[in-house]
Amino acid sequence: MDKVFVTRSSMPGLDEYVKEISPLFESHYLTNAGVKHEELKKELRAYLDSRGLELTVNGHMALELVIQAFGLKGEVITTPFTFCSTTHAIVRSGLKPVFADVDPKSCTLDPDCVERLITPDTCAILPVHVYGNMCDVDRLGEIAARHGLKVIYDAAHTFGVRYRGRSAVSFGDASILSFHATKVFNTIEGGAAASDSEQLGDRIRVLRDFGIVDEQLVTDIGPNAKMNEFAAAMGLCNLRHVEGEIARRRKVHERYVELLESVEGIRLNPPQEDVEPNYAYFPVFVDEKAYGEDRDALFERLKENGIFARKYFYPMVTDLKCYRDVYDSSSTPVARALSHQVLTLPMYADLSMEDVDRIAGIISKK
Ligand SMILES: *Cc1c(COP(=O)(O)O)cnc(C)c1O
Question: 191 C-alpha to center of ligand 1: Å?
């Protein structure tokens, strides 16, 4: 029985990658905004319509750098239904996360809940475009403008997504992207801080390099968060194929929908109006009563059949060991319920239709 994992990293052909990195064996210039880095930055700025985009070592550090660049202090309203990186970036920056509940359809921050939590100490909103679903950027933007707050989107799941024809990373004051191996587009490890602000871009470049402006001038206490040339070269290769990858993900997505949409007790992630998706994930939500089995039982049954789905995101952030004694997760009941129902199924461009059929068969059979 072949094992199927939840994701499989996209890679170019070996020849293509070797060709891309071969100049590095002549230049011996391996990091610090080298040729590959600058080329990838230029291409991503064009592909994502992001004038001020800067590359980083990963998505997490992009988020910490943006927070540092904005000099935020106080409370940040965010979602508990995310990967722990989002929350860790807030806490590690000396800020206080305040958790608002999410909308049950999109799994993204509910603007009404956000607004109720705003206090004089609030400095920013940090929403996450979960599974590639766009947040309610219109209302969040309006609320932030009315209260003078920054909005930083965690867009780790929305590479290439468009809303009303606009790039997903063009909303808010900045967005961060992750190019981790498991994401729709990868540079092995990598990320970016995206914005239209050249000023923010300038700050990110200094901060990601220890705060060094020049040999003698160090203006900030920054980390080392630079992308190296081998990662950038991987990105240049993968970017050539990303549209084809998304098209193949779409086929997988459509097959899953066809086979699962009428299974009682299994709710699918609904498509969003005016959104061009990237098919990053395929979450299903298990209604124990209607399905006759809970999420954990389905997870185990898939595993017995060699299918490794993922409870993503479970536990939700405020239930993680490092946070559960500090934050009260009962104040976000929608997020909590989703975290107990969700299972993300295997989703990647190379996933065969036979495997999709097999997975859907296990889910619909019972
Ligand atoms: C992947 C991910 C991150 C972190 O990105 P890295 O590149 O792994 O550091 C942050 N937030 C979300 C929602 C993610 O999925």
Answer: 9
- Ligand 1 within 6 A of CB of 81: no
Ligand 1 probe mutation, 6, 83, 126, 131, most atoms within 8 A of CB: 83
Measure the CA–CA gap between 226 and 106, rounded to whole angstroms.
33
Residue 1 has pLDDT above 90, yes or no: no
Q: 10 Å Cβ neighbour count for 91?
A: 15
Give per-residue pLDDT as tens, 301-339: 999 999 999 999 999 999 999 999 999 989 999 999 999
User: Is pLDDT of 95 > 70?
Assistant: yes
Phi/psi for 67 (5° steps) reads -60, -45
Do the strands 150-154 and 191-194 form a parallel or antiparallel pair, or are they unpaired? unpaired
Where do we find the tokens 């011996």?
28
Assess contact for 138 and 158: CB atoms under 8 A. no
Atom 6 (ligand 1): residue with closest C-alpha?
59
Nearest CA owner, ligand 1 atom 15: 156
Q: How far apart are CA 113 and CA 108, in angstroms?
A: 11
**Quick one: tokens of 205?**
């470049």
Contacts of residue 115, Cβ cutoff 8 Å, sequence gap at least 6: 143
Neighbours of 206 (CB within 10 A): 19
Return the pLDDT at 365.
82
pLDDT at 366 over 70: no
58, 85, 133, 278, best to mutate for ligand 1 pocket (most atoms within 8 Å of CB): 85
Torsion, Cα of 249, 343, 128, 65 (10° steps): -90
C-alpha 256 – ligand 1 centre gap (Å): 25
Q: Is 50 in the pocket of ligand 1 (CB under 6 A)?
A: no
Could you tell me the CA-to-CA distances from 258 to 255, 305, 312 in Å, in that order? Answer: 5, 21, 22
The pair of structure tokens assigned to 267 is: 């709710």
Could you check whether the bond before residue 313 is cis, i.e. omega within 30 degrees of 0? yes
- % residues pLDDT > 70 (the chain): 99
118: tokens are 């705003």
